[in-house]
User: What shape does this take?
Amino acid sequence: MMRLLLCLFLFASAVNAAPNILLLIGDNWSYEHAAANGDKVVRTPVFDRMAHEGMRFTNAFCPVPSCSPTRSCIVTGRAAHQLEDAASLWSKFPGKFRVFGDELRQAGWHVGFSGKGWAPGNFKDFGRELNPAGAQYQDFAAFMAGRKEKQPFFFWFGSTHTALHQWKAGTGRAHGIDPAKVRVPKALPDVPEVREEIADYLAQVELMDAAFGEAIALLEKSGELDNTVVIHTSDNGWQMPHGLAHCYDEGTRVPLAVRWPGRVQAGSMSDAFVSLTDFAPTFLEIAGLKAWPEMTAHSFMDVLKGEPPALKRDRMFIERERHANVRRGDLSYPVRGVRTAEFLYLRNLRPERWPAGDPELYYAVGPYGDIDGSRTKLYMMAHANDPGMRPLFELSFGKRPGEELYDVKNDPDQVVNLAADPRYARVKAELSSSTDAWMRATGDPRVDAATNVWDSYPYLGGMAKDLRQTKK
Ligand SMILES: [Ca+2]
Assistant: This one.
């Protein structure tokens, strides 16, 4: 009898000891821009610590290189193409889709976010009271003040430090970052203007790292750090041409480190392919809850625990629909593809459309609005016809063929399209059929090649202006 009571007591203790979860999520912060990931210039002691005391991932990707679509996948654990409007930027989040935060709350967890949660878009008028990321708080301290004693918590700390509107000219140098030492990806012109802007962005990465460090310090002070799973990552890549909204690594590959003492081996590294979509089933499993049948994602708890993976994690599917309102008729630019350790395959489903937006539609700072208004973009547009610039300009701003294939080992910046090279025909065929199989298995409406369903979902952000009418 005593033994039975002891067992029950131990079982109850284990239940009470459910760890907390802290998600540190940057905004438009690319994989390579962390010291632990090999960047020689930027200083990211907090990310490096999470990697050193936890597991660092080299193949973590966002499912869609666009803010709210990726965030829709994170909260639901489902492929973007299953989420109707929520697969596009600045759309509605249909209330019928379940989100993991609601289930945690129902299980007694304290759930909230600060900064950027699920955004940008509208959930309030479509069946949800709370942001899909949880209840909004001023900051982590305010959230913790509202927690009941011993209540497990999930907190989403959404930084916007690295978003383009924060990149101020000169902050890189002010932070001691030497523009001469930054790496310029091959898709961008290697000129002082671009180097200066990269340095300014890296300064923002350092500020984000420090802000996340304050949350870690708060947990340490309260004695909760070691009972908290810390996930340190970003929602998608940086806002340079060839980055955000485009399916190359600069837009899709993200930093990821997970610290969980006692479960995740300190200083470990994994090359398993993990999608941010996998967070939802993983968080449910951490909480002792089951993944839902509609989820297309899979928990990566096995990888975290260093167990043989239950799932072959050797590829990541990437997709996009409409990003900003930058094509006449508010048209999407649909892409489906797959990234493996060796190749990136992309299928542009409407190659007759402009991937970066119509040249005559003005959005935010000018045409080609699916490239955000960095100084680098403006430089490239102003020098589009300079010798040497045209090929780079075409890579980011020009139309693209129906298929793209990149050898990511020999061409990590993905600037040489091998899709038409007969030597790669077999590789391309395998990746193409893998993409088809994924689309069919997950009920992608794009399996019907004629569908244009995403062109009809309303865009809720600022509308593009027709340059021919405004003469702007
Ligand atoms: Ca983002």
In short: The longest strand covers residues 20-26.
